[in-house]
Amino acid sequence: MPVARTHCVGLVGVTGRLVEVEADVGPGIAGTHFIGLLDTAISEARGRVRSALINSRFAWPDARVTVSLFPATLPKRGSIFDLAIAIAVLGAAGAVPAQRIAAPTFLGELGLDGRVRPIRGVLPAALAAAEAGVRTVVVPALNAAEAALVPDLTVVPVATLAELVGWLRSGDLHRLPVVADAASLSQDAGQAQHDDHTEHAERGEHPEHTGHCRNGRRAEDAPRPFGPYGGGRAAPGPDLCDVAGQPMGRKALEVCAAGGHNLWMLGPPGSGKTMLAERLPTLLPPLDQESALEVSAIHSVAGTLPPGRPLLTRPPFMAPHHSATMAAVVGGGSGGLVRPGTVSLAHRGVLFLDEAPEFATTVLDSLRQPLESGTVTIARAVGAVTFPARFMLVLAANPCPCGLQGTVGHPCKCTPAGRRRYLDRLSGPLLDRVDVKVKIGRATRAELLADRHFVETSATVAERVRLARERAARRLAGTPWRTNAEVSSSALHRDFRLSDAAMAPLHRGLDVGTLSARGLDRVLRISWTIADLTCKDRPGQAETSAALALWLGVD
Fold first, then answer.
1. Is residue 555 over pLDDT 90?
2. CA–CA distance, 159 with 139 (Å, rounded to integer)
3. Is the dihedral of CA 441, 446, 448, 452 positive or negative?
4. Are 434 and 256 a contacting pair, CB within 8 Å?
5. Which three-class secondary structure state does DSSP give residue 203?
6. Are the C-beta atoms of 318 and 302 separated by less than 8 Å?
7. 67 with 88: CB under 8 angstroms?
């Protein structure tokens, strides 16, 4: 019998590569042999695929079956290859036309009863297939809406192996109970993103992505839960107007949201640090289509996509516990299976470390490289995997272990050496990468009552942030940067050089040693953000002085 060929996608991190799956049924001692640098999950596929075929009433070839996954040098992991292997074997055995399985790409895990089960990483796999020129991809029915986000790609969702074989034999798409059209789903995703921006400005809610099918049915018939990830109406989300008595904290939050800057808040317990951090995502604009696909692909690989929301249109907010390990924060895994960490799950969003000095020093220092490069590379013996990690870092810390230093009527019981050791857990190189530092004190009753007249809603501040980001985008058009925080040092001093008068406060800081060379660049970036918020073409001395005060943490 001739060799049958089809395709699947191998994932390395969030990057996919098209894999050619070949099957040969020939003479020899009956048995199944896999070749092509496989892991344990793929080696075990012979049992899953054989049982799935038999229980779907297809005969398993009583001959020597050889399955090859090319390129052999590419490590292949996971059960994503089950469906492609089964179809290749059926094609080699003559159960389905070999010419009809050559063009599509098949993704999915098989159950022993022939069901096609959902898998992780469908979105990046579908993106890789589309980039390789594939026009049709077959996926589990529960992953259909996710795969259909990729434009110019026909998505064929299947629930069982028998259902798929029936389509391959007839070639009629409408024989399947569900056929998702990628173009219509992509349009719905774009409309959902537009609606999300509008509704967020009005009510702070997160709309749902709805996918329509070519034959009028939905890609997923399962009922959607209520809440922020479901189709029901969620409870009102956090709003910046909830935080009273902290005008400096709210202003720092606005500057960070407008420029994509990192933030450190120092203050006693109960002063509002966590409330401020949780409201930072409400000030950020929705993700554009490219960023939304990038963020959704990372969460797809990690298996953290919310139910019913294949496309994440809002910036993610990650807040790991202080007991998190380095592998959990940066990423890692065993057996060659590397998963993205919290820094990658917070890509294009916010990473909040509450009680930052309680984190392990190695975990905190591991953030230094991603903060500079926007990526994190995890090296293992079998190879290296790079994940995106362009996030806004927000640190919150108490002034001392007891948290009472500087509070009125509550004397601190910590020794000077204990206070110093506590804050020394945040290393100088890490804090040097934090743009904005602000002290958050406990507000008095009079301050709370007076500030109630000046608080603004998240929608009001988010509009100013949007306008500031648009000004920055026009200035940075034609460059690889999106926000002021991403502008390189060379561009700051060459293309966006400020006048000597505006640089005077910064030169004094360099002379007295309160400002480092890296700190100078970060102050310049903040000054451009302040200028964008005040609708100025270039920062002046007022903006650089204000930026220097924010970087130093001066009230």
1. no
2. 9
3. negative
4. no
5. coil
6. no
7. yes
In contact, 126 and 147? CB cutoff 8 Å? yes
Q: Which two tokens stand for residue 29?
A: 């001692």
Cα angle 547, 437, 476; round to 5:
45
Question: For residue 370, is pLDDT > 90?
Answer: yes
Out of 56-70, 179-193, 378-392, 536-550, least confident range: 179-193
Distances from the Cα of 133 to the Cα of 21, 265, 388, 392, 421, angstroms: 16, 49, 24, 35, 57
Q: What is the mean pLDDT of residues 452-458?
A: 92
Q: Is the pLDDT of residue 187 over 50?
A: no
539 Cβ contact list (under 8 Å, min separation 6): 498, 502, 524, 527, 528, 530, 531, 547
Percent of the chain with pLDDT over 70: 87
Helices (H), 350-457: 361-365, 368-373, 416-423, 428-431, 445-451
Helices in 378-516 by DSSP H: which ranges? 416-423, 428-431, 445-451, 458-475, 489-494, 500-512
Distance of CA 408 to the CA centre of its chain: 42
C-alpha distances in Å from residue 241, one per residue of 180, 282, 305, 489, 546:
42, 11, 29, 36, 24
In this structure, what is the dihedral angle of CA atoms 31, 33, 39, 41, given to the nearest 10 degrees? Answer: -40
CA–CA distance, 314 with 296 (Å, rounded to integer) = 10
Q: What is the pLDDT averaged over residues 206-221?
A: 35
